[in-house]
Amino acid sequence: MSAIWLATSALVFAGDSASGTITFKTGKCAVKYGWLVRGPDEMDPSKTVLRIYLSSVDVGAKIKACKTLSCADNALTDGAMVDFSDAHHLAYAVRLNGERLQYSGGTNGEAFTLTTSEPNHLVGKLHIDDTAADGAKVDATFDLTLVNTFASVR
Questions:
Q1: What does DSSP assign to residue 71?
Q2: For 146, which of 52, 58, 75, 107 is 20 to 30 Å away at the CA?
Q3: Residue 23: how many CA atoms within 13 Å on its side-chain side?
């Protein structure tokens, strides 16, 4: 009985999942990891946003250890960060090849196709395609649970 409980517990604590691709100009990133955080909206600090981090490398410990949203942002060097809220304009940024290639832009809620949208848990797909404007493209699936909440941007 205890072996079954341990196996079930391992599944529960296996962690969040993300997969997909991020491209910008000559850079490309295979998404292997994802994290979900909550923090103040940088344009309107009276509001909060959920921010999704998608990365090719595991920076989860750095994001969890941060005390500010900008600290978590700085942990990402190969991937994308995308805000999720009810705002009409959602910010996103792409950093590839150790931040040698960078792009930031805006999208809206239509970029997300969610199967679960709870205050601390998002599951679904993300599709952003700004290639017509010489921008980035993000295609990812994710199942993310909140790992950190920040009171301030800086």
A1: H
A2: 107
A3: 12
Per-residue pLDDT, 86: 87
Q: Which helix (H) or strand (E) holds 44?
A: none
Question: Contact at 8 Å (CB) between 135 and 102?
Answer: no
Q: Give the model's confidence band at 119: pLDDT under 50 very low, under 70 low, under 90 confident, else very high.
A: very high
pLDDT of residue 12: 41
Phi, psi of 69 (to 5 degrees): -65, -40
Distances (CA, A) of 17 to 37, 45, 56, 129: 14, 29, 12, 22
Q: Is the pLDDT of residue 7 over 50?
A: no
Helix ranges, 33-76 (H): 60-65, 69-75
Averaged over 93-111, what is the pLDDT?
Answer: 95
pLDDT at 59 over 70: yes
